[in-house]
UniProtKB/TrEMBL annotation:
Residues of the signal peptide: none
Listed name of the protein: Acyl-CoA synthetase FdrA
NCBIfam families, per the entry: PRK06091.1
GO cellular component: cytosol; succinate-CoA ligase complex (ADP-forming)
InterPro entries given in the database record: AllG-like, CoA-bd, OXTCase_su_AllG_h-dom, SUCC_ACL_C, Succinyl-CoA_synth-like
Encoding gene per record: fdrA
Any Pfam family: Ligase_CoA
Source organism: Blautia liquoris
GO biological process terms held by the UniProt record: tricarboxylic acid cycle
Length: 1001
C-alpha cells in the first residue's frame, strides 16, 4: 500500500535525497521507497515508477516527499524518525567541517562576494538554466553540473556567455580543474603545464590522474559538457577555451578530448587546432587514427593521450604501462567466454566498448540497448551513470548497489569469463568504493570456484595518491581480494580481452607534416584568461561539498542555499527574469526611488478632528469605512459585521442591534475601503462620520492620512464588540478625548512622529504589538499643554488617565503616519515595492508602486499566537485590519528584533526567534531605514522596501504582528500573534506588472 509523507518547505539536494532513499529502502518491511523534491520533473519520475499519489501531486517544488510501499502503517513513524535522524547526522557532519558562509539569495551572495567570477550550479535542471542566466548577467562564468537542461537553453546561454567574454561549462559537466582547484567530481591533481579541454567528465579524470601518477600535472582542465560539440551548439565553449588556453603562457601542451562529435563541428575544431602554436593532442573517442601530424597528435585511447602529453612536456619518450599478471590461467578464444563491464561513466565505458569491438573485429556497430555501450554475443559494456540507471537514484560513483546487482547477474551467466569495472576516487566519489565492493567480489569468486568456473575480476582505479580515499590503499585492497588491478582503463580492457583469448592491434603511428587549415583564430577573452590564471571566486548553488572542497584549496566561496524560486513555478520564474532584464527603464532604480521617498517622509500629527471634516466621502449619507480591499457587508466575517453594528449604534442610525443589522443588510449604507479615502482603520477598520480621527500630514509631499483613535484593549469596536460600554466610550472619544487632543496638537503646532519613533524603537517598541514607549512619549508631548488648557478638570483627568492606561495608543498614530508616508512614496509610479498591505477578514490585499491603486488579493490566513485564558485557535477570526501598513513601512513584525519583550506574546519563541524573523525579512527588502535604528540589532536600521519580486522569488512573505479577534461578534480581542499574507497576492502583482511592461509567455 502506497503511503505518502510530505515535509513542507524542506528543501534538500538530489544527491542527499538519493542516499536517504537507499537508507530508508533498507528498513525491513519497506518494499519500495522514493524520496525526492516534488518538482514537476520528479513527479514524472514518481509516475514512471508507479509511485504517484494525490498527496505527491499536491506538493510543491519546495516540499520533500517520501512515497513508500508498506503494509504496516506503523512503519511510517519509523521512516520519519530515520529521515529526521539522517538529516541530524548530515547537519552534524557539516558542523564538523569548516564550511563556507551560507546565504539564501543572489543579492546576499553578491553582497558577500562582490568579485565572484564563477558560479557552480548543481540544482535541478529545470531551474539551472535560469540561474546560469542570472550568473552571466552578474558577470560570472558558469560551471553547470546540472543535467536535464534543454539544448535550446544551452545554446542561448553559451551564445550569451561568448558575447560577454565569459564561458559556460556544461550542462552535465561533471569535472573541472581551475588553477589546481577541483570542481565537482574531480581528483586531487598536481598542478602542471598540461591543459585539457574535454566534452567528457570521466575522460578528464582518467587523463589527469594518469598524468599525475606519471609525475606531471594539470593546472586547468575545462569541461565543456557532452553536447557542446553537437551541431546545434557548435562547439562554442570549446572554441573559446582553445583560444584562452593558447594564450595562457602556463599551458605548454594542450589535450582536447570528446565523445564522437558532429562531423562539421569536429572539422571546425580540428581546423582551429591546426593553427595552434602549441603542441596539441586530440582524442575523439571511437576514431582510430592511423598517424600523427607535426605538433598535432591524434590519440586512440586516454592512456595514449596522457603518455603523449607527458612525453611532449619532458621532450622524451614515456614507457608504456605494464600489467603484472599471470596469464597462464587465461581462457583461449575458442572457449567463447564473454566480458561483462560495468562503468561509472560514459567515457571509460565508451573506450572499453571501442577496444572490445576492435578485438572482436566488429566492422558493423552492434545494436545498443538503453544504458549499454556494447551488447553483443554475450559481451556487455554498461554505463551505470546513464540516466536510465541514475534517474531518481544515486550515481554509481557514490553508491555501489547497482554495480553489485550487475556483478551478481554477470556471475550467474556461465559464459562470463571477466567482470571488468572501474573505481573512481576523488571528490564527490564514495569514500571507499573498493571496500564496499570487495565482500561481493569475494562471494562471487567463491561461487564461481564452487561451480568449477573461473571468473576474472579486473579493475582500474582512477585516482591520485593525494585523493582522500588513497590510490595505493584502494589498489592494495582490490589486489588482496584477488582482483587484477591495472593502472589505466586501456590496460584493464586489454587485460580483460586477453583473459578471453583475444587482443587488439595498437601499432605505432608515423608522424606526417601538419595540414594547416585556412582559418583565423578567434579573439581571446581577457575574462577567460583571468579565470584561468587565478583561483576562482565561487558562488556555489547546490551541493555544499563542492564549496567545501574549493575552500580547502584556498578559494573564496559563498554557499548559496538555493531552493526553487517562485515555488518552482517556471512561468513565474520567467516572469521574474523578464522584470530583471527589462530594458525600458531600471526597475531597481525605480524601487530605490520609492524607498528614498519613504526615508524622506516627515509625518506630523496636525490635528484630531471629526472624520467627516477631513474625509468628504463621509458627508454623503450613511457611509462606513472598513479595513482591507473592497468587500460587501454580506461577505464580511461576523466580527466585522459586529463592528458595523456598533458604528450604526454610535451614529444613532438605529437604536438597537436588530434594527442596525436590518439597516446594514438593506443596502442603504455605503461601504468604502479606508485606503480609498486616505485613511486606515485597525482590525475591522470601521470609521464613520462623527468618529475622532488623527490627521497626519507627510510634510515632505504635502499629503494627509487619517486613522481613528485607539480605544484600548478587550471589548472594543475594532475587535467586533458593540455593547453599550463600547458605544459610550466612542462617544466620549468623540466629545472629550478627540477635541482635547486636537486642541493640544494645534497649540503645539503639530507633533513630529519620526523623533518619537526613533526614541521608542530604542526603548523596545516595534509599533504594532508593542507601543508602550511611544504612547508614553506621545503623552509626554501633549500632557504639559493639556494641563494648561481651560477645560473641565474631570475631563482633563479622564483624558490623562486614558492616555496613561492605553499602552497601544500610539499604534493608530503609527498607522496614519505609515499611510501618509506610503502614499507619498506612491507618487513614484514604477517599481515593485509594496505600498500597502491590508485585510478585510476574507481577502488580503496589496498594492505595488508600479500598479497604482490596483489591489491584488488572496484568501486571508488566520493568525497564530497566544490566547487569553479560555480561548484557542478554534475561536479566532480570520485576519483583519489595515494595521499591516506598519509592516509596509518596515516596523511591526518586520522589526520584531526591536521588541524582544513582545515576542513571546505574539507567539515567537524569544530573542533568537525575533532575530531570525527580522533577519529573514531582510531577504525580501531592499534597504534599511536610517531614521529608525535598532540598538540590539548592532544599531542597524529597520528593514525597508518590501520588493514583491523578492517575495515571489524566495517564497518568503512579510510577517505581521496582530491582535486576534473572536470569530463571533461581541467577544472582542482574545489574543495576539503573527500572520503572513498569502503568496498569491504578490504573484498576481508581479504577473500584472510584467504584463503591463509587455511580458507574455
Amino acid at each position: 500500500m502506497l503511503k505518502t509523507l510530505v515535509k513542507k518547505g524542506s528543501y534538500h539536494d538530489s544527491v542527499v535525497l538519493m542516499l536517504l532513499t537507499n537508507h530508508i529502502a533498507a528498513i525491513k518491511g519497506v518494499k519500495t521507497v522514493s524520496i525526492m523534491m516534488a518538482t514537476p520533473a520528479n513527479k514524472d519520475i514518481f509516475k514512471q515508477s508507479g509511485l504517484d499519489t494525490e498527496e505527491l501531486m499536491a506538493a510543491t517544488a519546495n516540499d520533500m516527499v517520501v512515497v513508500a510501499d508498506v503494509d504496516d502503517d506503523s512503519l511510517l513513524d519509523t521512516i520519519m524518525s530515520e529521515v529526521d535522524l539522517f538529516f541530524q547526522n548530515q547537519s552534524a557532519k557539516s558542523a564538523d567541517k569548516k564550511s563556507s558562509k551560507s546565504v539564501k539569495s543572489w543579492d546576499k551572495a553578491l553582497e558577500n562576494l562582490p568579485n565572484a567570477n564563477l558560479a557552480v550550479i548543481s540544482i535541478p535542471g529545470a531551474y539551472a538554466a535560469l540561474e546560469a542566466d542570472r550568473a552571466l548577467d552578474e558577470g560570472m562564468n558558469v560551471f553547470m553540473f546540472s543535467d536535464n537542461v534543454t539544448i535550446e537553453d544551452e545554446k542561448k546561454l553559451k551564445e550569451k556567455a561568448h558575447e560577454k567574454g565569459l564561458v559556460v561549462m556544461g550542462p552535465d559537466c561533471g569535472t573541472g580543474i581551475i588553477q589546481g582547484v577541483p570542481v565537482a567530481f574531480t581528483n586531487n591533481v598536481a598542478p602542471g603545464p598540461i591543459g585539457i579541454i574535454g566534452a567528457s567528465g570521466t575522460g578528464i579524470q582518467e587523463l589527469t590522474t594518469i598524468i599525475d601518477r606519471l609525475g606531471e600535472g594539470v593546472t586547468n582542465a575545462i569541461g565543456t559538457g557532452g553536447r557542446d560539440l553537437s551541431a546545434k551548439v557548435g562547439g562554442i565553449t570549446m572554441m573559446d577555451i582553445i583560444n584562452a588556453m593558447e594564450s595562457d603562457e602556463h599551458v605548454k601542451v594542450l589535450i582536447v578530448i570528446s565523445k564522437p562529435p558532429q562531423k562539421a563541428v569536429r572539422e571546425k575544431i580540428s581546423a582551429r587546432l591546426s593553427i595552434c602554436k602549441k603542441p596539441v593532442i586530440t582524442l575523439f573517442l571511437g576514431e582510430k587514427p592511423e598517424y600523427h601530424e607535426e605538433n598535432f597528435y591524434h590519440a586512440y585511447t586516454l592512456d595514449e593521450a596522457a603518455r603523449l602529453a607527458v612525453s611532449l612536456v619532458r621532450k622524451e619518450a614515456v614507457k608504456e604501462g605494464m600489467v603484472n599478471v599471470d596469464n597462464s590461467q587465461f581462457y583461449c578464444a575458442d572457449e567463447k567466454k564473454t566480458i561483462k563491464a560495468y562503468y561509472s561513466g560514459g567515457t571509460l565505458a565508451g573506450e572499453a566498448a571501442m577496444l572490445i569491438k576492435d578485438a572482436l573485429q566488429m566492422r558493423i556497430p552492434p545494436q545498443k540497448a538503453e544504458g549499454y555501450m556494447l551488447k553483443t554475443a554475450g559481451h556487455i559494456v554498461v554505463d551505470l551513470g546513464d540516466d536510465v540507471y541514475t534517474q531518481g537514484k544515486p550515481h554509481p560513483m557514490i553508491d555501489p548497489a547497482k554495480r553489485i546487482e550487475c556483478m551478481q547477474e554477470a556471475v550467474d551467466d556461465e559464459s562470463t569469463g571477466v567482470v571488468l569495472l572501474d573505481i573512481m576516487l576523488g571528490y564527490g566519489s564514495h569514500e571507499d568504493m573498493a571496500g564496499a565492493l570487495i565482500p561481493t567480489i569475494k562471494k562471487l569468486q567463491e561461487k564461481a570456484t564452487a561451480e568449477g568456473r573461473k571468473v576474472f575480476f579486473i579493475a582500474t582505479v582512477c585516482g591520485t595518491r593525494r585523493d582522500f580515499q588513497g590510490y595505493d590503499e584502494a589498489v592494495s585492497k582490490l589486489t588482496n581480494a584477488g582482483v587484477i588491478v591495472c593502472e589505466t582503463n586501456k590496460l584493464a580492457v586489454r587485460t580483460a580481452i586477453q583473459a578471453i583469448g583475444l587482443d587488439f592491434s595498437d601499432p605505432e603511428k608515423e608522424i606526417r607534416a601538419k595540414e594547416v587549415k585556412k582559418v583565423t583564430a578567434g579573439q581571446t577573452s581577457e575574462k577567460l584568461l583571468q579565470m584561468l590564471s587565478g583561483k576562482p571566486r565561487i558562488i556555489n548553488l547546490g551541493l555544499k561539498s563542492f564549496a567545501e572542497v574549493a575552500e580547502k584549496f584556498g578559494c573564496e566561496t559563498i554557499q548559496y542555499d538555493w531552493t526553487p524560486p517562485a515555488g518552482g513555478n517556471v512561468e513565474l520564474i520567467k516572469t521574474l527574469s523578464f522584470l530583471r532584464h527589462y530594458e525600458g527603464f531600471d526597475i531597481d532604480e525605480a524601487n530605490r526611488k520609492v524607498v528614498a521617498k519613504i526615508v524622506s517622509g516627515q509625518p506630523v500629527i496636525k490635528d484630531v478632528a471629526a472624520a467627516k471634516t477631513v474625509i468628504k466621502e463621509l458627508e454623503k449619507g450613511k457611509v462606513i469605512l472598513h479595513a482591507g480591499p473592497p468587500i460587501a457587508y454580506r461577505d464580511m466575517p461576523d466580527t466585522v459585521q459586529g463592528s458595523c453594528v456598533g458604528a450604526v449604534l454610535f451614529e444613532e442610525w438605529a437604536d438597537n442591534e436588530d434594527d442596525a443589522r436590518r439597516l446594514l443588510e438593506s443596502g442603504e449604507v455605503t461601504f468604502i475601503p479606508c485606503h480609498h479615502v486616505k485613511a486606515v482603520g485597525p482590525m475591522g477598520g470601521i470609521t464613520t462620520a462623527n468618529m475622532a480621527v488623527f490627521v497626519v500630514e507627510n510634510e515632505t509631499d504635502g499629503n494627509e492620512a487619517y486613522c481613528t483613535l485607539n480605544e484600548g484593549i478587550g471589548k472594543v469596536l475594532r475587535f467586533g464588540a458593540y455593547s453599550k460600554e463600547v458605544v459610550e466610550r466612542l462617544r466620549w472619544m468623540r466629545d472629550v478625548l478627540g477635541p482635547t487632543l486636537g486642541k493640544a496638537i494645534r497649540l503645539l503646532g503639530g507633533i513630529s512622529v519620526n523623533p518619537i519613533v526613533a526614541k521608542a524603537i530604542a526603548m523596545g517598541d516595534e509599533f504594532h504589538q508593542r507601543n508602550i514607549a511611544a504612547s508614553l512619549a506621545f503623552l509626554k508631548e501633549v500632557a504639559p499643554t493639556i494641563v494648561k488648557m481651560d477645560m473641565d478638570e474631570k475631563q482633563r483627568g479622564d483624558v490623562i488617565q486614558f492616555l496613561s492606561d492605553t499602552d497601544q495608543f500610539f499604534l493608530n498614530i503609527m498607522m496614519a503616519s505609515g499611510k501618509a508616508v506610503m502614499d507619498g512614496a506612491r507618487m513614484v509610479t514604477e517599481g515593485t515595492i509594496v505600498t500597502a498591505m491590508c485585510r478585510n477578514g476574507v481577502e488580503f490585499g496589496i498594492r505595488i508602486a508600479g500598479m497604482g491603486d490596483e489591489w491584488f488579493t488572496g484568501p486571508v490566513n488566520t493568525p497564530s499566537g497566544l490566547y487569553f485564558t479560555g480561548y484557542d485557535g478554534e475561536d479566532a477570526c480570520p485576519d483583519i485590519g489595515d494595521s499591516s501598513i506598519t509592516e509596509t513601512l518596515g516596523v511591526g513584525g518586520m522589526a520584531m528584533i526591536a521588541a524582544p519583550a513582545v515576542t513571546r506574546f505574539v507567539g515567537a519563541g524569544g530573542y533568537e526567534d525575533a532575530l531570525r524573523t527580522s533577519t529573514e525579512m531582510t531577504e525580501i527588502t531592499i534597504d534599511r531605514n536610517p531614521n529608525f535604528i535598532i540598538p540590539n540589532w548592532s544599531f542597524k536600521g529597520t528593514c525597508l522596501g518590501i520588493d514583491a519580486r523578492l517575495v515571489v522569488e524566495k517564497g518568503i512573505t512579510p510577517v505581521i504582528n496582530t491582535g486576534i479577534a473572536h470569530k463571533i461578534a461581541g467577544y472582542g480581542q482574545i489574543g495576539a500573534g503573527t500572520v503572513h499574507p498569502p503568496l498569491e497576492c504578490f504573484e498576481k502583482a508581479v504577473r500584472a506588472y510584467a504584463e503591463k511592461l509587455g511580458f507574455s509567455l
